[in-house]
Design brief:
Elements (H helix, E strand, L loop, with lengths): L1 H17 L6 H12 L6 H10 L6 H13 L3 E5 L5 E5 L7 E5 L5 E4 L2 H13 L10 E4 L2 H6 L2
Parallel strand pairs: 3-5
Antiparallel strand pairs: 1-2, 3-4
């Protein structure tokens, strides 16, 4: 796992340099925060976590660097349940889908071999070679449905 982290960090460094940008301590702090968190983060959560660690990072800097991380394939941006964008670290080779509660915003990640096979079958049938996919099922979770009872 440490080796994967180092290779992802190097990819980020290379992307920053190729774009003629400087690798700042703030950029590295954001990278480290995103890659130590597990799950989905919004921009405000990232800002608060970084400020607790002593960083004086601005909202604009977070957005710019999340865009940079997304452009090099290290972060994926999701629009879930009509709320603000959420970001997650992309784990190499791992693909998953999401269940999102429309009421409380709870997000559940899941993997389905059957769904993956069906996606491959559909792509083949239509002459596509899938490079990425996104499946999000919106509903109400059991807790929110039970609260109505």
């Amino acid at each position: 796992m440490r080796m994967q982290y180092e290779s992802e960090r190097q990819l980020f460094r290379d992307t920053v340099r190729r774009r003629g940008l400087r690798m700042t301590a703030t950029r590295l702090a954001l990278f480290d925060e995103v890659f130590t968190q597990h799950g989905h983060l919004d921009v405000q959560q990232l800002i608060e976590a970084l400020r607790r660690r002593g960083s004086k990072i601005s909202r604009a800097t977070v957005y710019r660097n999340l865009d940079l991380l997304e452009s090099c394939g290290l972060v994926k941006k999701h629009q879930m349940g009509g709320r603000q964008s959420l970001y997650e670290h992309v784990h190499g080779g791992e693909s998953h889908d999401h269940l999102v509660c429309r009421e409380c915003g709870r997000v559940v990640e899941f993997v389905s071999v059957g769904i993956a096979a069906l996606q491959q079958e559909i792509c083949r049938a239509h002459g596509f070679d899938p490079s990425d996919h996104s499946l999000q099922i919106e509903s109400r979770c059991l807790d929110c449905r039970s609260a109505d009872s």
